[in-house]
Amino acid sequence: MNPRHATRISRFLSLVLRHQPETLGITLTEEGWTNVDDLIAAMNRHGQELDFETLEQVVETNDKKRFEFSDDGEMIRASQGHSVKVNLGYQPTPPPEILFHGTVARFLPSIRDNGIQKGQRYQVHLSASLVVANTVGKRRGEPVILSVRAREMNAAGREFYLSTNGVWLTDSVPARYIDFPQ
Fold first, then answer.
1. pTM score of the predicted model
2. What is the CATH number of domain 99-179?
3. Strand 67-69's sheet: what is its strand order?
4. What are 8-35's pLDDT values in tens digits?
5. What is the DSSP string of 45-98?
6. Average pLDDT of 62-69?
7. Element containing residue 34 per DSSP (H, E)
8. Which fold has domain 3-78?
9. Residue 93: what pLDDT?
10. Pairing of strands 75-78, 34-35
């Protein structure tokens, strides 16, 4: 498959399955799933050429594993990153001692005052990997990596969830649990 076509399809799937299913006139279940055949038909009606084999390849080769098929292969959803309300069914999971959040310097004053907030997303995204946090931060400029004392936060009653693609999710991160770079 042409890499540009795969990237275009992946970006459009992110829009539809995470933020705006109405763009294609599809609906998501409470858990974020939509029928694969309905999605393919809607994509084709809207000028996004797609068949099952291409969709399967996009899901399998997505570097961030943003999408997943149901066990029977009949449904598809985004693994995390939603701005629409969904219940992905992830169970509370004890986090590692430290998780990381990639951002840029211009957001530090707000984070120092308010902690890390979910903004337009359904939950805050954290990573167990410095490399991933750095990549996330780079999307908006020179990255700044924040360390989050996740185990301490969890012991204080804050819940964490681990998505199927390895992203750690929580509702917010109070500033008192963040170690800022000097």
1. 0.78
2. 3.20.170.30
3. 34-35, 75-78, 67-69
4. 999 999 999 999 999 999 999 999 999 9
5. HTT----HHHHHHHHHH-TT--EEE-TTSSEEEESS--SS-----PPB-PPPS-
6. 88
7. strand 34-35
8. Arc Repressor Mutant, subunit A (1.10.10)
9. 97
10. antiparallel
